C-alpha cells in the first residue's frame, strides 16, 4: 500500500484522556479514533491488525473443529426472557424497542441465540458434538469503559459454543479449545497465562481465563512460583452461611453514630483479614443468609459489587442467575449452588449486613439493630478460602505469588444451564429426551489487539510482532524528489510484494523527520530506508524490535529480511 493513500492520522501529543500506553499509542499512531465513550472506529492500520488477529483465530478454530457462522447482534427480548438473563443481566445489557414497541437486546453474548438455533435444528445424538463460532460485534454498557479497546462498550469478540451428549465429549472439546486459545495467544506474541477462572472452586476444571500479564490488568492472578497452578482471584468468593437468630433485617435505620466494631474485630470474627472484607454481598437462601465476600483491589470490587446491587431490584433470582452475576462456576458458591431460589435482599439490608459484619464502608455510619452475635451466628464456613500471597500453592507445589492480568479469553463448561432453560434437547441412543450439554468459549478480539500493543511498545511508538503487524516492511524513500531513491523504492516495493511481503511505501513528500517519527509510531517490524546510498545500490534496514541497523545491498535485501 502507498502511504499517500492511507488514512492514518498521527498525533505528536499524547491524548489527555488516554491513561494507558496501548490506548495512547493506538490513537497517536492513527490506528483508531473514539466515537463515543467505549466506542471506536478502526482506521485502516488498526483494522489490518484486527484482521491479523482474526485470521489467527480462524485458523486455530478450524484446527479445533469449530465451524464459523454469523448470528445477529439484534436479539429479541423473548430469547433472553427464556434463559432468564433478561432479568438478571442488569444494566450492562443494552436494551431497546422497535417501532412496534417490541423489546430487543443488543447481543452482549450469544448463548440464547445459538441455543435456540441449535434447539430448532438438532434433534439426534448423531448430530453431536457440534461446535460453532463467530467473530462479531458485542455490546455491553460497561459502567466504566476505559483503557480504549481494553474495556469498550462495543467490541469485537470471537465466541464459540459447543453442544454435546456427554460430559466426556464436552471435556474433549474443552481441551481442544484450551489448546487453540493457547496457540492463538502464543502466535500473537503475548506473554500470558491460563488461569483457573474461579479460584473458589479449588482445582476447578470447569472454567479458565487466559490472562495477559500486565500491570494495568484489572484482574489479579494468584500463581505458584514453581508449578503451573494459576487462578484469578478477582472474584474469588468466600461463602459463609449465617443463620438468622434475631429480628428481621428489614426497616433498619441509618445513623450517624460511629460503629463500635473496628474492621479488625469484624474480620477477626469472620476469620478473614481486613483486606478480605472490603466488599461483601448477602443472599437469603431459604431461611439462611449467605454472605459472599469478594476480595481484590477496591476499584474492581466496586464495579462488580455495584453491578450486583443493580440487579437486586429483581426480587427473586435463581441460584444460577446469581452465579451468573457473580461470574462463578456452577456449584462453586456452596450454599447458593444448592438452593433452588435465592432471594436477593434489598440494598439497604445488604449494606446493613456489610456494615454490621464487615465494617462500615461509609465512614461514620452504621445500621442500628444489626449485631453479628445477636442477629446472626456463624453456622458454617465453606472450605472456600482466599488465597494470600506467600501461601502454599493449593496444588502443594511452591508458593503463591500475585500478578496483574488482562482477560483476553475465557473458556467455560456451561453444562445444561441454557439447554434446560430453553428446551434444547436431543434424543439419545435409546430414544430418550436429554438436554444438550454445552460449553462456551470467548476471545476479546479487539481487546487482544490492545493487549499486544500494551506489551509491545517503547517511548517512540508501537512494536508489532510480525504475526499481527499491519505490514511486514515499511519502505521509506528519504527524498521522493531524488529519482534514484524514488525508483529504487518503487522497484523494491514491487519485488518485495512479489515475494509475499506486505509493504507500506511512504511515498509522501514529507520531511525525513516526519516520516521516521510516523514509522516509529506505526511499529512495522522492518524499516527499509532508501537514502543517499541508493546510488551505490545500498539501503538501510532497521529492525523495530531491537533497533538493530544494517546497510544491505539491494540485491541481498530479500534474503536479509526473510
Ligand atoms: P471482564 O471480566 O473483563 O469484564 P468478562 O468476563 O465480562 O470480561 P466474557 O463474558 O468472559 O467477559 O467475554 C469473553 C471475552 O470478551 C473476555 O475474555 C474479554 O476478552 C472480552 N471482553 C469482555 N468484555 C469486554 C469489553 N468490555 N471490551 C473488550 N473486550 C471485552
Ligand atoms: Mg465483564
Ligand atoms: Mg471476567
Ligand atoms: Mg470472562
From TrEMBL:
<dbReference type="GO" id="GO:0005829">
    <property type="term" value="C:cytosol"/>
</dbReference>
<dbReference type="Pfam" id="PF04073">
    <property type="entry name" value="tRNA_edit"/>
</dbReference>
<dbReference type="InterPro" id="IPR006195">
    <property type="entry name" value="aa-tRNA-synth_II"/>
</dbReference>
<dbReference type="InterPro" id="IPR036621">
    <property type="entry name" value="Anticodon-bd_dom_sf"/>
</dbReference>
<dbReference type="GO" id="GO:0006433">
    <property type="term" value="P:prolyl-tRNA aminoacylation"/>
</dbReference>
<dbReference type="GO" id="GO:0002161">
    <property type="term" value="F:aminoacyl-tRNA deacylase activity"/>
</dbReference>
<feature type="domain" description="Aminoacyl-transfer RNA synthetases class-II family profile">
    <location>
        <begin position="38"/>
        <end position="465"/>
    </location>
</feature>
<dbReference type="GO" id="GO:0004827">
    <property type="term" value="F:proline-tRNA ligase activity"/>
</dbReference>
<dbReference type="InterPro" id="IPR007214">
    <property type="entry name" value="YbaK/aa-tRNA-synth-assoc-dom"/>
</dbReference>
<dbReference type="InterPro" id="IPR002316">
    <property type="entry name" value="Pro-tRNA-ligase_IIa"/>
</dbReference>
<protein>
    <recommendedName>
        <fullName>Proline--tRNA ligase</fullName>
        <ecNumber>6.1.1.15</ecNumber>
    </recommendedName>
</protein>
<dbReference type="InterPro" id="IPR044140">
    <property type="entry name" value="ProRS_anticodon_short"/>
</dbReference>
<dbReference type="InterPro" id="IPR033730">
    <property type="entry name" value="ProRS_core_prok"/>
</dbReference>
<dbReference type="InterPro" id="IPR050062">
    <property type="entry name" value="Pro-tRNA_synthetase"/>
</dbReference>
<dbReference type="InterPro" id="IPR045864">
    <property type="entry name" value="aa-tRNA-synth_II/BPL/LPL"/>
</dbReference>
<keyword id="KW-0067">ATP-binding</keyword>
<keyword id="KW-0547">Nucleotide-binding</keyword>
<comment type="subunit">
    <text>Homodimer.</text>
</comment>
<dbReference type="InterPro" id="IPR023717">
    <property type="entry name" value="Pro-tRNA-Synthase_IIa_type1"/>
</dbReference>
<dbReference type="GO" id="GO:0016740">
    <property type="term" value="F:transferase activity"/>
</dbReference>
<dbReference type="InterPro" id="IPR036754">
    <property type="entry name" value="YbaK/aa-tRNA-synt-asso_dom_sf"/>
</dbReference>
<dbReference type="GO" id="GO:0140096">
    <property type="term" value="F:catalytic activity, acting on a protein"/>
</dbReference>
<keyword id="KW-0963">Cytoplasm</keyword>
<keyword id="KW-0436">Ligase</keyword>
<dbReference type="InterPro" id="IPR004500">
    <property type="entry name" value="Pro-tRNA-synth_IIa_bac-type"/>
</dbReference>
<keyword id="KW-0648">Protein biosynthesis</keyword>
<keyword id="KW-0030">Aminoacyl-tRNA synthetase</keyword>
<comment type="similarity">
    <text>Belongs to the class-II aminoacyl-tRNA synthetase family. ProS type 1 subfamily.</text>
</comment>
<dbReference type="Pfam" id="PF00587">
    <property type="entry name" value="tRNA-synt_2b"/>
</dbReference>
<dbReference type="InterPro" id="IPR002314">
    <property type="entry name" value="aa-tRNA-synt_IIb"/>
</dbReference>
<dbReference type="InterPro" id="IPR004154">
    <property type="entry name" value="Anticodon-bd"/>
</dbReference>
<dbReference type="GO" id="GO:0005524">
    <property type="term" value="F:ATP binding"/>
</dbReference>
<dbReference type="Pfam" id="PF03129">
    <property type="entry name" value="HGTP_anticodon"/>
</dbReference>
<comment type="function">
    <text>Catalyzes the attachment of proline to tRNA(Pro) in a two-step reaction: proline is first activated by ATP to form Pro-AMP and then transferred to the acceptor end of tRNA(Pro). As ProRS can inadvertently accommodate and process non-cognate amino acids such as alanine and cysteine, to avoid such errors it has two additional distinct editing activities against alanine. One activity is designated as 'pretransfer' editing and involves the tRNA(Pro)-independent hydrolysis of activated Ala-AMP.</text>
</comment>
Amino acid at each position: 500500500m502507498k502511504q499517500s493513500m492511507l488514512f492514518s492520522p498521527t498525533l505528536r501529543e499524547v491524548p489527555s484522556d488516554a491513561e494507558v500506553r496501548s490506548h495512547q499509542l493506538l490513537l497517536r499512531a492513527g490506528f483508531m479514533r473514539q466515537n463515543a465513550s467505549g466506542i471506536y472506529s478502526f482506521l485502516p492500520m488498526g483494522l489490518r491488525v484486527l484482521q491479523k488477529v482474526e485470521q489467527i483465530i480462524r485458523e486455530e478454530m478450524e484446527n479445533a473443529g469449530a465451524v464459523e457462522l454469523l448470528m445477529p447482534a439484534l436479539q429479541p427480548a423473548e430469547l433472553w426472557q427464556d434463559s432468564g438473563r433478561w432479568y438478571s443481566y442488569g444494566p450492562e445489557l443494552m436494551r431497546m424497542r422497535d417501532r412496534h414497541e417490541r423489546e430487543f437486546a443488543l447481543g452482549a453474548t450469544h448463548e440464547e441465540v445459538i441455543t435456540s438455533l441449535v434447539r430448532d435444528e438438532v434433534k439426534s445424538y448423531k448430530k453431536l458434538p457440534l461446535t460453532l463460532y463467530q467473530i462479531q460485534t458485542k455490546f455491553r454498557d460497561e459502567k466504566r469503559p476505559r483503557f480504549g479497546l481494553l474495556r469498550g462498550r462495543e467490541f469485537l469478540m470471537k465466541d464459540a459454543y459447543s453442544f454435546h451428549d456427554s460430559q466426556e465429549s464436552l471435556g474433549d472439546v474443552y481441551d481442544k479449545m484450551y489448546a487453540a486459545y493457547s496457540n492463538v495467544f502464543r502466535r500473537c506474541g503475548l506473554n500470558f497465562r491460563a488461569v483457573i477462572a474461579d479460584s473458589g472452586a479449588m482445582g476447578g476444571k470447569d472454567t479458565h481465563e487466559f490472562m495477559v500479564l500486565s500491570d494495568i490488568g484489572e484482574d489479579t492472578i494468584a500463581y505458584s512460583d514453581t508449578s503451573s497452578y494459576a487462578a484469578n482471584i478477582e472474584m474469588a468468593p468466600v461463602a459463609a452461611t449465617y443463620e438468622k437468630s434475631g429480628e428481621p433485617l428489614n426497616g433498619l435505620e441509618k445513623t450517624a453514630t460511629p460503629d463500635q466494631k473496628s474492621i479488625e474485630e469484624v474480620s477477626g470474627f469472620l476469620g478473614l483479614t481486613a483486606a478480605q472484607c472490603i466488599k461483601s454481598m448477602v443472599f437469603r437462601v431459604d431461611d439462611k443468609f449467605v454472605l459472599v465476600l469478594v476480595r481484590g483491589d477496591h476499584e474492581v470490587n466496586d464495579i462488580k459489587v455495584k453491578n450486583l446491587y443493580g440487579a437486586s431490584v429483581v426480587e427473586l433470582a435463581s441460584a444460577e442467575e446469581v452465579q451468573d452475576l457473580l461470574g462463578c462456576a456452577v456449584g462453586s458458591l456452596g450454599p447458593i449452588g444448592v438452593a433452588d431460589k435465592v432471594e436477593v435482599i434489598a440494598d439497604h439490608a445488604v449494606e446493613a449486613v456489610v456494615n454490621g459484619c464487615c465494617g462500615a464502608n461509609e465512614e461514620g455510619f452504621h445500621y442500628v439493630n444489626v449485631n453479628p452475635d445477636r442477629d446472626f451466628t456463624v453456622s458454617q464456613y465453606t472450605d472456600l478460602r482466599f488465597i494470600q500471597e506467600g501461601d502454599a500453592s493449593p496444588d502443594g507445589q511452591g508458593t503463591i505469588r500475585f500478578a496483574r492480568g488482562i482477560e483476553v479469553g475465557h473458556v467455560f463448561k456451561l453444562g445444561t444451564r441454557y439447554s434446560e432453560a430453553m428446551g434444547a434437547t436431543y434424543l439419545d441412543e435409546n430414544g430418550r429426551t436429554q438436554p444438550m450439554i454445552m460449553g462456551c468459549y470467548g476471545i476479546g478480539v479487539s481487546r487482544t489487539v490492545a493487549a499486544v500493543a500494551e506489551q509491545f511498545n517503547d517511548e517512540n511508538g508501537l512494536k508489532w510482532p510480525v504475526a499481527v503487524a499491519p505490514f511486514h516492511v515499511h519502505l521509506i524513500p528519504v527524498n521522493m524528489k531524488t529519482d534514484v531513491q524514488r525508483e529504487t523504492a518503487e522497484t523494491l516495493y514491487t519485488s518485495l510484494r512479489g515475494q509475499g511481503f506486505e509493504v507500506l511505501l511512504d511515498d509522501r513528500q514529507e520531511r525525513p523527520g516526519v516520516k521516521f517519527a510516523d514509522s516509529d509510531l506505526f511499529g512495522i517490524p522492518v524499516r527499509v530506508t532508501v537514502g543517499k546510498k541508493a546510488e551505490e545500490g545500498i539501503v538501510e534496514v532497521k529492525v523495530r524490535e531491537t533497533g538493530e541497523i544494517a546497510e544491505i545491498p539491494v540485491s541481498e535485501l530479500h534474503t536479509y529480511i526473510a
